[in-house]
Design a protein that fits this description.
Elements lengths: L2 H33 L6 H19 L3 H24 L7 H23 L13 E3 L3 E3 L1 H23 L1 H11 L1 H6 L4 H24 L8 H16 L4 H21 L5 H15 L12
Antiparallel strand pairs: 1-2
Length: 291
């Protein structure tokens, strides 16, 4: 394989996984944008999505791409339960309260998951035909399908937020909760719905990751950290910016190993994270304060 072909293959791989990263980060940034809560249970919720799909595929023989639909609905339900159990009572408390509350959910999920599943690696042994571009560039079918599903999820989220009454309510509560309540919008139910959708996105991303990479109960933590980097890149509270940030991060992960050791990838990612915080605290695609 020539250098050009290696570069092209790496760029494509990075771009495809970037769509999945974007979906994971959209869940995190949606929750923050609506209720100013940083969800530290995001990583374990991604892991739940991974193992939900693994269980449906392994024990029930479901096609993993059909199983993703069930994972998404389960994520919505799990998110609403977590909201009322751990977030609702501290929604107006100082930020540390919600951090500690979601961190407690994080530790509970990891503890129970480790006890039930250990930290061993699992695989969803499902294959799709590969796509060959040119003579030497091959894209695995599962990675391509994961990107397609991620694009569909993004389009559905955009349509929901901008074309439905519930989506408009979510945006209204995000902009000004008190004014929305005065207009008769039930903010508690809308906040629960927003948290549920954020969790649904996290678990859907976990399910997509399970179709292309080995999983374990602690793997969600890695993607949670990536999500924070992406959210800072795309701008806090900006779901579409999160998708763009995911693509940027995916391209970095694809390009860096071509020129240097893969161990430099997290160094560059978190170096970029710090630079964006220092130079562009609103992110590459975030709105300036007061705009």
């Amino acid at each position: 394989m020539s250098f050009g072909e290696l570069l092209g293959a790496s760029l494509l791989d990075g771009l495809l996984i970037g769509f999945v990263y974007g979906v994971a980060a959209m869940g995190l940034t949606l929750i923050f944008g609506v209720m100013d809560v940083i969800n530290l249970a995001h990583g374990p919720l991604i892991a739940i999505g991974m193992f939900f799909l693994y269980g449906l595929f392994t024990h029930f023989g479901m096609n993993p791409y059909l199983a993703i639909i069930l994972v998404a609905f389960a994520g919505l339900l799990v998110g609403i339960i977590v909201y009322f159990a751990a977030v609702h009572r501290v929604i107006n408390a100082p930020p540390l309260s919600s951090l500690l509350s979601t961190f407690s959910v994080n530790m509970i999920i990891i503890g129970v998951g480790t006890a039930l599943l250990s930290t061993s690696a699992y695989n969803v042994d499902f294959k799709l035909s590969s796509l060959t571009i040119g003579s030497n560039i091959t894209i695995t079918g599962t990675r391509l399908m994961a990107a397609v599903v991620a694009i569909i999820v993004t389009a559905l989220l955009y349509g929901f937020l901008y074309r439905t009454r519930a989506g408009k309510y979510i945006r209204a509560v995000s902009n000004n909760r008190q004014a929305a309540e005065l207009m008769g919008i039930p903010s508690t139910r809308i906040l629960a719905l927003a948290f549920g959708i954020g969790t649904m996105l996290a678990m859907t991303a976990g399910a997509l990751i399970a179709t292309i990479l080995p999983i374990n109960i602690l793997a969600g933590g890695t993607y949670e950290l990536k999500s924070f980097v992406i959210v800072v890149l795309g701008g806090l509270g900006n779901p579409l910016g999160a998708l763009a940030g995911g693509l940027v991060l995916g391209l970095i992960e694809g390009l860096v190993p071509v020129f240097m050791e893969a161990t430099w990838v997290p160094v560059i990612e978190f170096g970029l994270f710090v630079l964006i915080l220092l130079l562009m605290p609103n992110g590459l695609f975030g709105k300036k304060r007061g705009s």
